Amino acid sequence: MQVIVRENNVDQALKALKKKMQREGIFREMKLRNFYEKPSEKRAREKAEGLRRARKLARKRAQREGLLPGKRTR
């Protein structure tokens, strides 16, 4: 991963790096690797994540097609 520092602005470059790492899921990966995860727990977690992703995608698709109301504003 590479971030360009422009005009000696390290703070901006650091912010960009953190954003890239967040998008790539590196922080999440580091948190997961902190402790050993049993293979059965890993399978269960990945299955739950997949279900969550599928439901979210289906919900967004239904909103686009007008079957569900859009996002609520508070």
**% residues in beta strands:** under 5%
Mean pLDDT: 92
- Got a strand count? 0
Helix fraction bin: 55-70%
Q: Main sheet, how many strands, which sense, barrel?
A: none
Explain this structure to me?
This protein is 66% helix and 0% strand. By secondary structure, it is mainly α. The chain has two domains: 1-35, no CATH class; 37-68. The radius of gyration is 19 Å and the shape is flat. The chain starts with 9 loop residues before the first helix and ends in a 10-residue tail after the last helix. The mean pLDDT is 92.
Q: How is the secondary structure organized here?
A:
Blueprint: H1 10-24, H2 26-33, H3 39-64
GO biological process, one term: translation
Family: Belongs to the bacterial ribosomal protein bS21 family.
Pfam families: Ribosomal_S21
Core attributes:
single chain, 74 residues, mainly alpha, 3 helices, 66% helix, Ribosomal_bS21
Short description:
The protein is mainly α and 74 residues long.
